[in-house]
Design goal:
Blueprint (H helix, E strand, L loop, with lengths): L1 H14 L3 H17 L4 H16 L13 H24 L1 H9 L11 E6 L5 E6 L7 E8 L2 E9 L5 E2 L5 E5 L5 E5 L7 E6 L7 E6 L5 E6 L3 E5 L7 E6 L11 E3 L5 E5 L4 E6 L7 E7 L5 E6 L5 E6 L4 E5 L7 E6 L2 H6 L10 H4 L7 E6 L5 E9 L5 E10 L5 E11 L4 E3 L5 E4 L9 E4 L6
Antiparallel strand pairs: 1-2, 2-3, 3-4, 5-6, 6-7, 7-8, 9-10, 10-11, 11-12, 13-14, 14-15, 15-16, 17-18, 18-19, 19-20, 21-22, 22-23, 23-24, 25-26, 26-27
Helix pairs in contact: 1-2, 1-3
Length: 448
């Protein structure tokens, strides 16, 4: 909160410098502010600099508005006195202001376990989100290597998290439910760049970066905002899509590999496909609908010709997108939830296969193998005894988009939201019930 306030005040003070000064130094100063986190001394330094520049004859206006030198000198002296008084007043009231701000600042907590996990395409950087409230949630960056996971840094976040494919940006949510953009090019020293406000009064429910890391889709309850983040310190709102979006996660928002299509799940059994080739003029081109259910995860194939989704009830659907305006079903597999509960041919008691009294709602992760020849779905189920089981189902994908064969692997674990790494074979496990562990496990070779 303080760093954000300091950043805003710093930028405002740069605008207060004389016109001639800004012509020479504005861009340079803004670049410096983009690269370093603003602090209170930054604000004081810029305020003093602005006052000094106004007093410097070299930067005064060529034709002063007030021509009388005596009056001009008197006004400058009065402005200087007011600045000193304001500074002294700020020092004496610092404690009260600090106490007021203290109620609004981030108080990290780990009460709800991991609710989101995302990896960069090279699988070298992992971002996790723990907790569910904006003022207590924690985003943690970890490096992934042969030696396992290593924590790099933690910073405030909430509700959702997305990491840019180039690994330089992380998007999460701010205190007011807006998207927040962080610079993680130096992952040990993340810095808040901007708060993105599209004018929506709904809460932020999901985010995703385009494959080239230049566009961010931020999904709210009734709209989805597309932002140009090519210059992340100065993001630019491109358009707001009139797309209803349900209570989704990053897994329900997917860009095609070429960045030309965007799929959005609305939480009511419908997926809208948008043409975002020109993001500022995005337009809906197709719709997918399932009855009595809704999609929990979406994934495009590496060539972008297939879109796969998995529903809450455990049904996997694959659509061919030769014509995005008319998606055609090429494969359907149902009953995954029952198979995960009763593997190996076990028969479910009557009525329990679908309902499972006492079970938690399943969480899903979905992804294609890099070559597009395999599709894997990971289902996490919280059982009545509060134990948890991850079950991964893998099918081979034909050229036409149908699914053949089936392999599965299961692991009893104590985790929350799973994620499937871009290699299509590594499962990332979050934590549940207040635990803060993150683990990796690899599926059998057939999954690749």
């Amino acid at each position: 909160m303080r760093s954000l306030l300091a950043a805003r005040l710093s930028r405002a003070l740069v605008a207060c410098y004389p016109p001639r000064w800004k012509q020479r130094y504005r861009e340079e100063m803004l670049e410096v502010l983009d690269q370093h986190q603003a602090r209170s001394r930054t604000v004081l330094s810029l305020a003093g600099g602005a006052l000094t520049a106004h007093l410097d004859p070299g930067y005064r206006m060529g034709r002063p508005v007030i021509k009388n030198k005596a009056v001009r000198a008197l006004l400058i002296a009065a402005a200087g006195c007011m600045a000193v008084i304001a500074l002294v007043y700020g020092v004496f009231t610092y404690t009260d202001v600090n106490q007021l701000i203290g109620d609004l600042v981030w108080h990290p907590g780990h009460a709800e376990g991991d609710v989101a996990l995302v990896l960069t395409p090279d699988q070298h950087l992992l971002a996790t989100l723990e907790g569910g409230e904006p003022d207590t949630a924690v985003v943690t960056l970890m490096s992934v290597g042969p030696a396992g996971l290593r924590q790099l840094s933690s910073f405030e976040g909430g509700i959702t998290v997305a990491i840019a494919p180039d690994g330089h940006l992380v998007a999460t949510s701010g205190y007011g439910g807006e998207a927040a953009l962080w610079n993680v090019a130096r992952p040990r020293h993340p810095a808040l760049l901007a708060i993105l406000r599209p004018g929506s009064s709904n809460a932020l429910w999901g985010e995703a970066f385009s494959p080239d890391s230049k566009v961010l889709a931020a999904a709210y309850g009734g709209t989805t905002a597309l932002w140009d983040v090519a210059r992340p310190a100065r993001p630019r709102l491109l358009t707001v899509l009139a797309a209803h979006v349900g209570p989704v996660t990053h897994a329900d928002i997917a860009f095609s590999p070429d960045g030309h299509l965007l799929a959005l799940a609305n939480g009511n059994g419908q997926v809208t496909i948008w043409d975002v080739t020109r993001p500022a003029r995005a337009a809906p081109v197709g719709t997918i609908t399932v009855r009595g259910d809704y999609f929990q995860a979406l994934a495009f194939s590496p060539h972008g010709d297939l879109l796969a989704g998995v529903t809450t009830a455990g049904t996997v659907l694959v659509y061919r997108l030769d014509d995005p305006g008319r998606p055609t079903v090429t494969a359907s597999r149902s009953g995954l939830a029952a198979q995960a509960l009763y593997p190996g041919g076990m028969r479910a008691p009557a009525g329990l296969a679908a309902n499972c009294p006492g079970c938690g709602a399943p969480s899903y992760a979905l992804g294609f193998a890099p070559g597009g020849r395999a599709l894997t779905v990971v289902l996490d189920k919280i059982l009545p005894d509060n134990s948890s089981r991850d079950t991964a189902f893998t099918w081979q994908v034909t050229a036409s988009g149908s699914l053949t064969g089936s392999t599965s692997a299961a692991r009893d674990t104590w985790d929350g939201q799973p994620a499937l790494a871009p290699d299509g074979r590594t499962v990332v496990d979050g934590s549940a019930f207040g635990r803060t562990a993150v683990g990796l496990w690899e599926l059998p070779a057939a999954a690749g």
